[in-house]
Design brief:
Strand content: under 5%
Helix content: over 70%
Order of helices and strands: HHHHHH
């Protein structure tokens, strides 16, 4: 069992022990995921690019907590929808490689429709 699968199983047990499955609809989980992503953004609000690259220990720990929340909600959402997040990410990476060929995209931030 992979670490991701172990996390999924832990989340299932955590939710079941608290009778939270009734609240974990895909809609609610997607909304919670969005909220947690927003909380992650708060850790970088008003920082310069340079500051965002060198967070202090407290800020790094706070960002880590929010990253954990985002990951846990994403795993739970994928579980409820029957999506393998690793397989989905691999498919998306292949699709992005086709949209953004190295010869056109290297060092360029334009959207694939503008390359």
């Amino acid at each position: 069992m992979t670490e991701l699968e172990q996390l999924r199983e832990q989340l299932r047990a955590f939710s079941a022990e608290r009778d939270w499955d009734q609240f974990h609809s895909p809609k609610n989980l997607a909304m919670a995921l969005s909220v947690e992503a927003g909380e992650l953004l708060e850790n970088f609000q008003w920082l310069t690019e340079e500051q965002s690259l060198s967070l202090g220990p407290e800020a790094l720990a706070a960002a880590g907590d929010e990253v954990a929340d985002v990951l846990l909600y994403l795993i739970r959402l994928c579980d409820q929808l029957g999506i393998d997040p690793v397989a989905a990410a691999q498919r998306k990476l292949l699709a992005n490689a086709r949209k953004y060929p190295v010869d056109k995209a290297r060092g360029n931030s334009k959207k694939y429709t503008e390359l």
